[in-house]
Structure formats: structure tokens, C-alpha cells
Amino acid sequence: MISMPRQQTPFLVVFITTTVVVVRKSWQLRGIPPQSNAVLLEVSFWVFFLAAFAWACERIMCNRVRPFHLHALWHVGAGVGVYPWLLFAVQLRAQYLGQVTWIRQGFCGLPYVRSGGPRA
């Protein structure tokens, strides 16, 4: 049986609802070129999903898995999972504004979106 403190319930309802809405809307937009949009969104989804799974395991089996620090893994995974989604959103917005975009690798191989001038 899952036991969570009652004060977390409103947060979880809002968080899960917002996440589902953002993922659903983003998934509808993934087919818009450039194709890297879909890759960014899929990477984001799977990393975030795995982090949420680790967090759920930690909440359900708290005493048994506490030494594995799954809650910390949730925070790291959520941050790593949100970053590709932000790149997706930046690239989609630039595309909407008629700009050409590229995914480039920056410091330590960290990807970023570079936009050029307007499309020809």
C-alpha cells in the first residue's frame, strides 16, 4: 500500500496534471520539421519517466531502498529530462518565428540550440 503524507497530495495532483498536459501537447507538435524536434522530445520523455519511476519506487518502498538515494536520482533525472524539452521548445519557437535552427554541442558536449537569420 502506498502511504504518502496528506500535504503532498495537492502538489502531486497539480504536478502530474501539468506534466501530462505538457507532454501531450508537445507530442502533438513533435512531427513538425526539423526532425531533431522528435529526438529531443523522446529523450526528454524517457529520462523524465525513468526519474519519476525511481521516485515512485522510493515513495512506495522507502525503508528498503533508502540507501540507494532514489530521491536524489529523481532530482537529477528531472533536471536532465527537462533540459531536452526546453531545447525542443526553443527550437519550435524559433521555427515558428521563421528562423533556421541547429543543435550544436557546447561546453563538455552539452547541446544547445543555435538560430540563424530568417529562412530564405
Structural description of this entry:
The chain has 120 residues and is α+β, with helices and mostly antiparallel strands. It is 64% helix and 12% strand. The protein contains 4 helices and 2 strands. A two-stranded antiparallel ribbon has the order 1-2. Helix 1 packs antiparallel against helix 2 and helix 2 (36-60) packs antiparallel against helix 4 (70-96). The longest helix has 27 residues, at 70-96. The model has no long low-confidence stretch (mean pLDDT 79).
Summarize the structure.
The protein has 120 residues and is α+β, with helices and mostly antiparallel strands.
Jot down its keywords.
alpha+beta, 12% strand, elongated, 120 residues, 4 helices, two-stranded antiparallel sheet
SSE topology sketch:
Elements lengths: L8 H21 L6 H25 L1 H4 L4 H27 L2 E7 L5 E8 L2
Antiparallel strand pairs: 1-2
Helix pairs in contact: 1-2, 2-4
Structural class: alpha+beta
Question: Helix segment count?
Answer: 4
Spatial sequence of strands, sheet with the most strands: 1-2
Beta-strand fraction estimate = 5-15%
Q: From the alpha-carbon coordinates, what is the Rg to the nearest angstrom?
A: 17 Å
Amino- and carboxy-terminal Cα gap: 59 Å
